[in-house]
């Protein structure tokens, strides 16, 4: 499992993105000489150090917040299409650095190179989408009940936005938020995961070049630090009108509470526990390919990873056999090697969490059908794992961020939907069937209770055109396409009287 690189060496990739051996951890328009403890960026495929970042402290966050507040004031006066032009250039700059940035995502987070590149492509797509949206921030006009009155809604920039992101999408989630926040007229501060600081540095350096080339206000600030020094002050800061937080349910509950206390807005994108239902009339080969990508892809470290598979009893034995064969052929190793299908987990803690979950699963009556072991050697590799489960196992209601798939059996679709919906999370879901009735039943109000519901497609790999997010403990937030931009703006209802009378609404009389 030796680490090979694509065409460039690791040091070439880092150098081309402006990353040194030691780096400052905050940017407010200039790089701040942060003095917090060093964060070591570790390559999860080898356990080797890539580079170091001096973390931001609360005082550094404060500088970023003051700068974001100051940048918001001129930025909100730029026209939305002019703001879109900055985002268009950001997309172009990302295109130029796609290869290096995608490689860095793989090196630092451990996902396959094609997924790293795909993540950068998603950033580029988000920029393109946002540029178009910058000319379509539509408000509605409505007929007033009062004569000679005009009534309409308009959308204004909201204010500085705090963006908290998770390690598993170390660049794309910033872009989901940043591209939209920017065209909406907001400034922002990014607090990335401490597990992927180099990705955040590289993206911010790219954004910095675009801002400077256009003399734009420094709307893209960065503070790399821990939850106490950066995350908590940011959540509590009334200047941050919106906190967009992506991560675990535990984090979302903590952040949501603090933001609610000050009556700010929060956009929460939290953990999932995603399920696929396979009916007896499904195309099993299609289902197999989808399950494999959704359960094993990214080593089970996507919020949309399939963690629960519901098999109709009539096809359960056949599907399990197919899964066993497919799992045996998964090539595990260096994510930069084009032959690899599954890379490492992000760190030793993630390996430990998976093993603890497995121990609990077995203790609760689960049976390991495949995998279940740590792979010895450098890096944080595990076997993809299949566990035969029952609905009475509490562990199956929790998200374990690893390639661990629980298999259930059912007799009919109503039972499958009930089982599927019986967990606290509600992010992504799918059904495999060739029956229009089953497909439509899954998509009705009493069908899947998730924010995302697919037919004959796995649970992961969403497109940016649709609003992305989930229900219940997944937090209810929506990012990316559709009308998600509205969360980054404030709505104003305007009524304009161009007549000579002052009629009151609802027929109220108030004459002297
Ligand atoms: P995490 O919750 O450990 O950390 C996420 C971020 O929150 C990090 O930047 C962390 O420093 C910060 N944080 C943690 N506690 C905080 C607090 N009290 N105040 C402020 N900031 C705090 O998550 P992770 O391990 O990095 O990522 C994996 C999790 O993220 C999984 O649960 C996954 O499902 C979820 N996720 C969800 C989505 C989605 O769109 N729904 C996308 C990606 C990841």
What key attributes describe this structure?
512 residues, single chain, 2 domains, Aldehyde Dehydrogenase, Chain A, domain 1, binds nicotinamide-adenine-dinucleotide, 7-stranded mixed β-sheet, Aldehyde Dehydrogenase, Chain A, domain 2, globular, alpha/beta
Outline the biggest β-sheet: 7 strands, mixed
User: What's the CATH C level of the largest domain?
Assistant: Alpha Beta
Q: What are the bound molecules? A: nicotinamide-adenine-dinucleotide
Radius of gyration: 24 Å
Strand content: 15-25%
| Shape assignment | globular
Distance between the termini: 88 Å
CATH topology of the largest domain: Aldehyde Dehydrogenase, Chain A, domain 1
Number of helices: 14
Helix-strand category: alpha/beta
* Oligomeric status: single chain
Helix content: 25-40%
Looking at CATH, the homologous superfamily of the largest domain is Aldehyde Dehydrogenase, Chain A, domain 1
Please list the strands of the largest sheet in the order they lie side by side.
Answer: 3-2-10-9-8-11-12
